[in-house]
Amino acid sequence: MEVEIGRGKKGRRAYGFDDIAIVPSRRTRDAEDVDISWKLGPFTLPLPCLASAMDGVVDPAFAIAMGKLGGLAVLNLEGVQTRYDNAAEQLDRIAALPKETATRTMQDIYREPIKDELVARRIKEIKDGGVLAAASLTPQRVEQYYQIALDAGLDVLVIQGTVISAEHVSSKVTPLNIKEFIADCPVPVIVGGVASYATTLHLMRTGAIGVLVGVGPGHACTTRGVLGIGVPQATAIADAAAARIQHLLETGTYCNVIADGGMRTGGDISKAVALGADAVMIGSPLAAASEAPGRGYHWGMATFHPELPRGTRVKAGVKGTLKEILAGPAHENDGTLNLFGALRTSMATCGYDTIQSFQKAEVMVAPALMTEGKKLQKEQDVGMG
Amino acid sequence: MEVEIGRGKKGRRAYGFDDIAIVPSRRTRDAEDVDISWKLGPFTLPLPCLASAMDGVVDPAFAIAMGKLGGLAVLNLEGVQTRYDNAAEQLDRIAALPKETATRTMQDIYREPIKDELVARRIKEIKDGGVLAAASLTPQRVEQYYQIALDAGLDVLVIQGTVISAEHVSSKVTPLNIKEFIADCPVPVIVGGVASYATTLHLMRTGAIGVLVGVGPGHACTTRGVLGIGVPQATAIADAAAARIQHLLETGTYCNVIADGGMRTGGDISKAVALGADAVMIGSPLAAASEAPGRGYHWGMATFHPELPRGTRVKAGVKGTLKEILAGPAHENDGTLNLFGALRTSMATCGYDTIQSFQKAEVMVAPALMTEGKKLQKEQDVGMG
Amino acid sequence: MEVEIGRGKKGRRAYGFDDIAIVPSRRTRDAEDVDISWKLGPFTLPLPCLASAMDGVVDPAFAIAMGKLGGLAVLNLEGVQTRYDNAAEQLDRIAALPKETATRTMQDIYREPIKDELVARRIKEIKDGGVLAAASLTPQRVEQYYQIALDAGLDVLVIQGTVISAEHVSSKVTPLNIKEFIADCPVPVIVGGVASYATTLHLMRTGAIGVLVGVGPGHACTTRGVLGIGVPQATAIADAAAARIQHLLETGTYCNVIADGGMRTGGDISKAVALGADAVMIGSPLAAASEAPGRGYHWGMATFHPELPRGTRVKAGVKGTLKEILAGPAHENDGTLNLFGALRTSMATCGYDTIQSFQKAEVMVAPALMTEGKKLQKEQDVGMG
Amino acid sequence: MEVEIGRGKKGRRAYGFDDIAIVPSRRTRDAEDVDISWKLGPFTLPLPCLASAMDGVVDPAFAIAMGKLGGLAVLNLEGVQTRYDNAAEQLDRIAALPKETATRTMQDIYREPIKDELVARRIKEIKDGGVLAAASLTPQRVEQYYQIALDAGLDVLVIQGTVISAEHVSSKVTPLNIKEFIADCPVPVIVGGVASYATTLHLMRTGAIGVLVGVGPGHACTTRGVLGIGVPQATAIADAAAARIQHLLETGTYCNVIADGGMRTGGDISKAVALGADAVMIGSPLAAASEAPGRGYHWGMATFHPELPRGTRVKAGVKGTLKEILAGPAHENDGTLNLFGALRTSMATCGYDTIQSFQKAEVMVAPALMTEGKKLQKEQDVGMG
Predict the structure, then answer these.
(1) Chain C residues within 8 A of D232 when measuring between CB atoms
(2) Structural domain count of chain C
């Protein structure tokens, strides 16, 4: 499937969500008969949904609300929550920044050091809400903070960077040996992001219970423009799903593929599963919940890089309650509310009753369709009184 | 023709109307010599055109006007006409809704129950106009209402859902057995929508006289965004046409392929036929007739779903009389008036004289052309004083 | 090169000018050494350029100016010039029409009958200017008017319809037998438009000295939207060029391929030649000449069809004198001035010195490039003070 | 990899930067361990970056600033700096031109003859700054001015035209024999632009130390629109890289491939290297430096062609200091600041530590991704308060 870009270079053709459409099978089902639960290591979760470790999306209160609805929110242990005792004050400040100076001021805000005490306190706040506590660290800071988080009651650790590999090379420091770390870690570990078959397979072999698939697809991320790096999500998920099969054949262990970023609607989430994902990690759609800490804004972890920022503070607005966004009912028809009711209906309409059977759904490559659809919707928005 | 989306997934490349252009043959004809009539079971209809079962498009008066012009309008038996004695009042209300609350209020309006008496009365109103009466029901409600409709004089029954299959699975209710139902039904039955070779073939085997082809292509439908499901119409029609041939070989019976949704202009209708359709079902273009009940708006059956609305109230405006839209004369040049004069001229220009011969016309895949054309038209609209 | 659109239908992938880029060879030349002249039957013309038979482009005065600059203008013998003694008055009226009623009023204006006397007078006016006189008729009217035109001094006859074929079928009238007509016609005949190998070859066999290639590509034409018919010009020209070779092999006669429509810039004209054209017929770019009769507007012959109009009155503006548009100098840099200086420079830059050698230039399929370029230019237009 | 455009013509499918994405490998690195230096003949340069020979980008002061930061600026020896003693006055004038008359007035400004004395003075001004002096001449003027430039201390000569070939054909003058010229020239020579394997190979055989790859891709260039000529940069660079290997095999000499034009962001520069470039030549991104002589504008060498201008005066604005643009820190996140910090991070993220190893990085063809990303960014710009 490689095409020749020029005499000296070939490349695979890759596809994004907008290039893909799901094809109904010859069977239909009742939506009530569809089961969208999934297993994450020892836990069975009703909704195949993680909330992204972004400061505009997850704080302890949001994590509790998310857990009670059946999902799992991941707290960013390197964000405002662990740098500031009064995180709300900084979130107010960020929401009020004028566009021109937003990046520069956020660089300043994130220069404040992380406090051990706050790492522990935020985890405890989540646990006190009676839900699972999940939190993320970058590979460079895992060893410094993970024990504090564990002691505070952490249930799931997420090790996450823009791009992560099982083999980091450095002349200055000894990098985290993910495989050894996971072997010793008493709680399940999710790692990412990755975007290729080989890296997914290597990371699955570290013993992780899930791999985050996605390099640069998220809506608050400008990695593609700044670095030129990125794999469209449809291809990345399908590649990772193939690595999961290979890993299952080799080890007998099923490792979760979690599509991370680039999904806006219930249709995108349905496509992620139809392409092979077990669950999705979403940020932008949840930032529009009235419970989200971002006050209508959100931004990624690379936004405030001191020398090479590559994210954007995105205006998400407020579209409804978290419950309305995750499980409905919807009073809008653009696909951004009742996301998992949509997944359930999509599966029923196509005749599938479990996440794992829906991963085998037929899909088509249909780019014109999607752009046409979007263009149209925009025209309607403009055209209507 | 499959492409590899990623290691774990392949998909066919699919095409929409905008990707397709019809190629003239080496012969031309007089438009007067072209015959665009078609047979729908026992009926021969002058225009290969059905009006969609949408509340903004078809009411009894519109159905009569449509029938007199040679087409066939399908009344939605689950819409405002059968829920409200004074349907006009609700249509006025919908047209006046502000955009922000339109979906929510329509959800309320459609909570009113369907009345048996109104089902019968609306059918009779159409019959009193001296034309064929066609009406639609969803599979879930066929058994409850079809006998009332038949008793009132129904000529053609349309069984229609977003996606329909010959094999619906439910743990709670016994689904309609379409094959058994049709065998016993005294009037011809059309079923849909479908979007694949296999499902079309299965539905043709139920004894239906026509299959509606189209999942999510219509202009008032956001199924693609909300559910991720959809097959571009050019591919869907060509697949269904292949199923029709297979069914003809197996049974000796010719079952009609009716392209449903996604057509805006005479060019789109011509392409639908050139790709294999026997007739088209259109909503948006007819909603712009001065006779349409929607007062310049229209919306689909999924718009008012109580928990997962996936349609939009679209502003259609008023472009002319129904006669001008169907048969001209046109005083605009954007392709939305004199739709079937355009089909006739397209067939003549390409050298074909019947619907069935035009189904064999040469087509090209020519995406750039189409977008360029549209872009240009927009620029001209802006550029002119 | 066919792709499967669906199970029942295949189609060739077709390309337009925007999909194509010319590739420099390993040689470069001086622009002064490039010869862009061509032969049209007995005539050698300095510029490979015909002006379209459109009322907003060609009147007798324009035809004289065009001839003096080395090109050949084609007068529409069925337009305002032959319907009205005082054509200028009607052209003033058209230019002043408000957008909303333009099509309807033009339908009225063109209901006025053609006068024999005016057909003769307009040809004589051109001949009195000391240049070649070329004029166009539709196949239906050739027999009625050609003798009048010949008697008045016509040098080149153009037989032109939206789509023309060597085999028109009619139940009511005996169509023009183009082959017999050309055999008896004392002046050279050009026919068109065509858009396929087979039809081009058939028309070449009628004895025409040139074939107009283009169905629906022009900027004042909405044939694609209204009828769904159209072949992107790059593919149409290359197909016609292949027919020219076949015809040359069969008969020893070289028949000209004239690209008709869809060209806006010197780059588009260069591509038409690189794809195989001997000359181009252009309308929109010349309508922007201060000498053009359209007062800054132009429109095609199908714009005023009484029942199915399929053209648009396009605002062309006034960009410069005809000499500046054809041969420079240019004081704008968007490619719409000095069109044939651009062709000369393009040929020199790529290393070719005659039209026929440039027809063999290497081209690439490079769609992204072109849209990017255009998008950019638009942004610059907006961005500059 | 050729596609059939029509029966008479085939062409390769070509790709631009926007069609390409870099794929992370299974290894990651520290950005501090990455070496982005390169060798240009006898010189080792810390930044793989040349500044384009454009009057809005390079004057002697800018060349000194650029050299001190590790790059190499190329002075245009046929621009305002060598035509006017007081070049600043003309640059002020150009920046103040209204859009309507900009091209025409620039044609006048560039009619002023080049002065030998100024050629020498500008080179000396650069040398007095303590950096390497590089300057460009068109092939037609090399013999007239190169000795003056050499005598003034020139270190690197750039011979540059829109398209250059090793074999220029002229009936009037004896063209520059590049091969003989380079053999005798005491300083290293770079030549360009080229856009094909064959021409690159021919030019490498002339003894040049570097070849500029790019015909018409730059942001201030309308060659594609005006002439129809152009090769998308991804394909052009990959073709040139293949020629470099062939030349290395034939001669044992490594000749540099310098991607010239079409790059806006750190992502584009990273892609250029991943496709095979040793270094990049950029204009637009540097024109936005506060040190750039264009006062927020820039324009190419073909903008002021007396008869066929094919460039545009582009508004670049002022985005930061030259140091911020080249090496950061960035306080914006759109990829236009810290361009070479971005290259370094891109290489580290993908696991590569030298320019030559990064040239072997895996890339994908992923068009949808890129347009989506750009569209999104625009929406965000609009959407934010």
Answers:
(1) 21, 364, 366, 368-369
(2) 1
Q: Angle at which helices B116-128 and B60-68 pack, to 10 degrees?
A: 30
Scanning the structure block, which residue is given the tokens 């939305």? B336
Whether C89 is covered by a domain: the verdict is yes
Question: pLDDT tens digits for B224-258?
Answer: 788 889 889 999 999 999 999 999 999 999 999 99
E strand or H helix that includes residue B51? strand B49-51
Domain that holds residue A193: 25-363
Cis amide bond preceding B193, omega within 30: yes
CA dist C275 and C204 (Å) reads 18
Shortest CB distance from C238 goes to which of D9, D170, D202? D9
- Residue A27 CA to its chain's centroid (Å): 31
Q: Is residue D362 part of a domain?
A: yes
Cα–Cα distance measured from residue A363 to residue A361, given in angstroms and rounded to the nearest whole number:
6
| Chain C touched by B11 (CB under 8 Å) | no
CATH, residue B147:
3.20.20.70
Q: Is B38 exposed, middle or buried (0-12, 13-18, 19+ CB in 10 A)?
A: buried
C6-63 pLDDT, tens digit per residue, is: 998 999 999 999 889 999 988 899 999 999 999 999 999 999 999 999 999 999 999 9
Residues in chain D with CB shorter than 8 Å from the CB of A161 are 28
Cα D199-D205-D208 angle, rounded to 5 deg? 95
Residue B335 falls inside a structural domain = yes
**Mutation target among A22, A28, A215, A334 for the B interface, most CBs of B within 10 A:** A28
Contacting A residues, span 154-173, partner chain D, CB-CB under 8 Å: 161-173
User: Residue for token digits 């962001």?
Assistant: D265
Question: What residues in C contact D309, CB-CB < 8 Å?
Answer: 330-333
Instruction: Kindly report, residue by residue over A187-238, the tens digit of the pLDDT.
Output: 999 999 899 999 999 999 999 999 999 987 766 566 778 888 988 999 999 9
D51–chain A nearest CA distance, Å? 20
Virtual torsion, Cα B298, B301, B306, B311, nearest 10 deg: -50
Amino acid D369: pLDDT = 40
ipTM of the complex, rounded to two decimals: 0.90
Q: Which of B346-355, D11-20, D250-259 has the lowest mean pLDDT?
A: D11-20
Q: Is residue D202 part of a domain?
A: yes
Q: Which chains touch A (3 or more CB pairs under 8 A)?
A: B, D
pLDDT at B166: 77
Q: What is the pLDDT of residues D43-97, one digit of tens each?
A: 999 999 999 999 999 999 999 999 999 999 999 999 999 999 999 999 999 999 9
Query: Quick one: which H or E segment has residue B281?
Result: strand B279-282
DSSP string, B330-345: -S--SS-SSHHHHHHH
